[in-house]
Amino acid sequence: MDIQTGFFYLFSVVLLFASFRVVTARNPVHAVLYLMLAFSQASGVWFLLQAEFLAITLVLVYLGAVMVLFLFVVMMLDINMDTLREGFWKHFPLAATLGALVALEMAAVLMGGFRLTEPPQAALAAGQALPVSNAKALGILLYTDYLMPIQIGAVILLVAMITAIALTLRERKDSKAINPGLQVRVRAADRLSVVQVAVTQAGPAPQPPAETAPTENK
Questions:
Q1: Count of helices and strands (H, E) across the chain
Q2: pLDDT of 17-26, one tens digit each?
Q3: In whole angstroms, what is the distance from residue 70 CA to residue 55 CA?
C-alpha cells in the first residue's frame, strides 16, 4: 500500500466517523463541529482524486463561510433539545425507509464500478495538448468558451450586492441616524438660548438669628 492509498483510507475513516457523529451528537454545537471535520476530510479526498478546484471551493465556501455562520447561529440560539426529540419515533419509519433507499442506490452505483479516464487535456499556446491541473483546465474553459456568461453573472452579482446595500441603508422612519453635514454647520446659538423667566412667587423673608443666653464660666 502506497502513501496515497494510506491517506485515502485515513480521510475516509475520519469522514465516516464525523458523519456518524453529526447525526448522533446530542449537542448541536458538537454536531456542527463534526460537520466541519467531515467537510475537511472530504476536501482531502477530492485532493487525492485531483479535483483541486472542488477541494478548495469546499474549504473556502463551506468551512470558511457557511459552517462558521451555522456555528454562530447555533451558539446564539437557545435550542430546546427535548422539544426536538418529541417526534423522533413518530417519524423514524419514514426516515429509516429513505435511508435504506439511499443506501441501496449507493450500493448499486458502487457495485457497478467506475470508469477510469485520462487526466484533463488542454490546448496550450504552442498547439500541444499537455495534461494540466484540474483548476487550470477549468479556468481555461471558463475564460474562453464561457467568457460572456461569466461576465454576465459577475454583473448580476454586482447589481445584487449594490441592491442589498441600498435596501439595508435606506432611510427609515424608526432610524435615529444624524446627518454629518448638519452637525458640521451647527452654531452655538442654535443649540443654546437664554430665556429670562419672571419670578412668580416672592421668596421667604430672612429670619434674624436667634439670641442665645450667655453662659457663666465656672
A1: 10, 2
A2: 999 998 888 8
A3: 20
Give the largest CA-CA distance in the chain.
130
Phi, psi at 131, each rounded to 5°: -65, 135
Residue with the three cell numbers 434674624: 208
**Separation between Cα atoms, residue 39 and residue 5, nearest integer Å:** 19
The conformation of residue 25, written as its DSSP 8-state character, comes to -
Do 70 and 132 lie in one domain? The reply is no
Phi, psi of 122 (to 5 degrees): -140, 140
| Domains of the chain: total | 2
With CA atoms as reference, report the closest residue to 44 among 6, 18, 7.
7
Task: Give a three-class secondary structure readout of 33-49.
Answer: HHHHHHHHHHHHHHHHC
Of 45, 77, 109, the domain-final residue: 77
Strands (E) across the chain are located at: 121-123, 129-131
Report if residue 98 sits inside a domain: no
Look up the domain containing 73 and give its range: 1-77
pLDDT digits (tens, 9 = 90+) for 8-54: 899 999 999 999 998 888 888 888 889 889 999 999 998 888 788 88
Q: Is residue 102 part of a domain?
A: no
Which of 77, 108, 137 marks a domain boundary? 77
